[in-house]
Amino acid sequence: MGDQFQLISVIRKHRFIKVRTGFTLAEMMVALGIFSIIMGIAYSALRTNDIYNGLIRIQIDLYRQNQRVISSISNELKESNLALKTTIQDGAGINGSDIIYFQIPIGLDNGYNVIWGADGTADYYIRYRLDATGEFLLRDILDAAFSPAAGSEQQIAYRVIDLQFADPMLDAAVPFGSIKITSTARKQGPDRHDISLSNTALVYLEN
After folding, report:
1. Does pLDDT of 39 surpass 90?
2. Are 23 and 31 in contact (CB under 8 A)?
3. What does the alpha-carbon distance between residue 120 and residue 123 come to, in Å, rounded to a whole number?
């Protein structure tokens, strides 16, 4: 009889034990707060990574544009003659940029003398400059009277905002027989700020 009474007492006690099956409102608020902080940190990290990758892509694009400028000009300019066949117009272009025009050998005459000109025409000149918007590098041909030849204008590179040339007369640091080319390109970054990049190369003239 005593054992039965004890069993009944234990059963009655367990009837009043409450089992928790969820979270309190305070616990939910704390969890949500921690989750929000973690998500904020993750978003900030992802956003920073996107901006960084965007900046890298822009730098690569600007470098390619500058290299296109330098490569296009130097491939032709190296065939010219610095003293006799090349002219740099310092600051004569748009926004104070430089203009260069020059001749290259296009053949030999009957006396085996070099014929100077451009695009296969004697006495013509190759000219490089920025366009009126200061965004594109242009290449065109000038005739013997320094007038632009019809239909000769070409867009070589874009996003180019400055073009500078220097020879030993303009810059004593430039080695004799060479011309320094500096191209500057610009593009708007992910944060809407302008990013610019300059590249410089020395071109040694062969004639």
Report:
1. no
2. yes
3. 10
Give CA–CA dist 198/63, Å, rounded.
8
DSSP-based three-state secondary structure for 86:
strand
d(CA 106, CA 109): 10
Strand arrangement, sheet containing 194-204: 160-166, 178-188, 194-204
Backbone angles phi, psi at 197, to 5 degrees: -145, 135
Report DSSP state, residue 148. Answer: B
Confidence (pTM):
0.75
Instruction: Determine the straight-line distance between the first and last CA of the chain, rounded to whole angstroms.
Output: 125
**How buried is 68 (Cβ within 10 angstroms: 0-12 exposed, 13-18 middle, 19+ buried)?**
middle
Q: Which residue has the tokens 């330098």?
A: 70
pLDDT of residue 45: 64
Domain ranges in the chain?
49-204
Name the band, by pLDDT with cuts 50, 70 and 90, for residue 37: confident
**What letter represents residue 119's amino acid?**
D
C-alpha pair distances (Å), 162 with each of 24, 103, 148, 180: 66, 23, 21, 14
Contact assessment for residue 168 and residue 174, using Cβ atoms and an 8 Å cutoff: yes
